[in-house]
């Protein structure tokens, strides 16, 4: 039967895909501290891992996988772009954090499978390497940053050259300017030991205080300020952009090229921070990165993948970093405040040494696919504890001011 003779129903089933190695199964696993791993296996037994973590919304993303599983089991695992297009466009309702995180997890797993099938790292499939090491930054200070110097020193001793911290605790729409004073002191402390520091405003600083804080920070030259205002406020961010020389970064709550476009066109950001587990996986984030790039005088925006997440998402970010010219730095969740105790970035890996940080950088991942080996037994054990109700899915804290009014977290 020729392609032109294929019945319409065959298209909907994906039967026109050559089934050289069809998807046999798509599974999801909840693992602490707050991650959702995806395991895709092919008929030939190739296993790919993805990450669809959407912090605080695990059950919603798992719901989206009911549909993806029904649609794509039986499809050729090699046709990543067609699967992505079908998952995104065919379902009419598109975009948003839940659907895009689910697509992300599936997409990353399919790239892992393709790399393992062909015997190459994913960065080879994304155009080859443009660098040998990727700079990364770690976290200090937690949600309510206080004594940061000891943590900063510990990260420096571990090989980091840059860290990020929340700029402030919770704030009202208009707080006393005194609420901002601690931020400057903490930045000075971290910089005093020779580290660069990014400040995450976390969308919790409202406009009247954001402009004050940006102005106060300027003499201390932070690496960047992140989410200085909430997503959707591109015009207000543009005004802020004109008031400060500090690089402005955002993007963790933007999920597609359509979402980032208004910020690019407004000229209000320096660094785009798509999250590979939220923004459509490797396929879409690579396109966002290319869109942001400076070739042919387009937007001249750097890529700093957002990744306060698990090892699969981090490996995917590095694969982008090794193959993307405008990559600048990547978030790394090692010892992040959510990763308490035994559930940290390296917990579910058999080869944690590939994430070793030296001179602030992680070296080229040489393994096939994503280049990491996942401890599947441990992942399954964690997930079982969740299914049996011994472990609850993570939820973000609820913050209220002294007057009882809700505040941004
Ligand atoms: Mg952030």
TrEMBL record:
Checking PROSITE patterns in the record gives: MR_MLE_1 (PS00908), MR_MLE_2 (PS00909)
Tell me, what is one Gene Ontology molecular-function annotation carried by this entry? Answer: metal ion binding
- Pfam families for this protein: MR_MLE_C, MR_MLE_N
Output this protein's name: Enolase C-terminal domain-like protein
Its keywords, alphabetically, are: Lyase, Magnesium, Metal-binding
Q: Please give the superkingdom of this protein's source.
A: Eukaryota
Q: Where is the Mandelate racemase/muconate lactonizing enzyme C-terminal domain?
A: 145-247
Asked if the keyword Lyase belongs to this entry, the reply reads yes
> Is the keyword Lyase in the record?
yes
Lineage of the native species?
Eukaryota, Fungi, Dikarya, Basidiomycota, Agaricomycotina
Which organism does this sequence originate in? Answer: Mycena sanguinolenta
CDD domains, from UniProt?
A: D-galactonate_dehydratase (cd03325)
Question: What biological process terms from GO does the record include?
Answer: amino acid catabolic process; D-galactonate catabolic process
Which co-factors does it depend on? Mg(2+)
Q: Which InterPro entries would you find in this protein's record?
A: DgoD-like, Enolase-like_C_sf, Enolase-like_N, Enolase_C-like, Galactonate_deHydtase, Mandel_Rmase/mucon_lact_enz_CS, Mandelate_racemase_C, Mandelate_racemase_N_dom
């Amino acid at each position: 039967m020729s392609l032109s003779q294929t019945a319409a129903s065959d298209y909907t089933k994906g039967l026109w895909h050559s089934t050289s190695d069809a998807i046999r199964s798509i599974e999801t696993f909840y693992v602490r501290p707050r991650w959702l791993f995806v395991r895709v296996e092919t008929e030939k037994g190739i296993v790919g891992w993805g990450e669809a973590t959407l912090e605080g919304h695990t059950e919603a993303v798992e719901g989206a996988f009911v549909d993806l599983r029904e649609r794509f089991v039986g499809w050729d695992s090699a046709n990543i772009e067609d699967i992505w297009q079908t998952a995104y466009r065919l379902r009419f309702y598109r975009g948003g954090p839940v659907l895009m995180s689910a697509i992300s997890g599936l997409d990353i797993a399919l790239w892992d499978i393709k790399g393992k099938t062909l015997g190459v790292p994913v960065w080879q499939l994304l155009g080859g390497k443009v660098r040998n090491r990727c700079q990364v930054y770690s976290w200090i200070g937690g949600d309510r940053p206080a004594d940061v110097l000891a943590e900063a020193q510990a990260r420096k001793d571990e090989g980091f050259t840059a860290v990020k911290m929340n700029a402030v605790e919770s704030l009202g729409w208009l707080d006393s300017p005194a609420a901002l004073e601690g931020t400057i002191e903490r930045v000075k402390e971290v910089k005093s030991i020779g580290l660069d520091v990014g400040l995450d405003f976390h969308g919790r600083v409202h406009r009247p205080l954001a402009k004050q804080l940006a102005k106060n920070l300027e003499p201390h030259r932070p690496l960047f300020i992140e989410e200085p205002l909430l997503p959707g406020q591109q015009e207000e961010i543009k005004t802020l952009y004109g008031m400060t020389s500090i690089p402005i970064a955002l993007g963790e709550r933007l999920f597609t090229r359509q979402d980032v476009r208004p910020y690019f066109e407004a000229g209000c950001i320096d660094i785009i921070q798509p999250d590979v587990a939220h923004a459509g996986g490797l396929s879409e984030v690579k396109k966002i990165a290319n869109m942001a790039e400076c070739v042919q005088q387009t937007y001249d925006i750097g890529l700093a993948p957002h990744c306060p997440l698990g090892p699969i998402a981090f490996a995917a970010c590095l694969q982008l970093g090794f193959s993307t010219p405008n990559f600048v730095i990547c978030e790394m969740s090692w010892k992040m405040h959510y990763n308490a105790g035994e559930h940290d970035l390296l917990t579910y890996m058999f080869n944690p040494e590939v994430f070793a940080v030296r001179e602030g950088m992680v070296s080229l991942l040489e393994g096939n696919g994503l280049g990491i080996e996942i401890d599947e037994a441990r992942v399954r054990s964690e997930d079982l504890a969740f299914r049996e109700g011994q472990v609850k899915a993570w939820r973000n804290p609820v913050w209220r001011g002294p007057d009882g009014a809700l505040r941004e977290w």
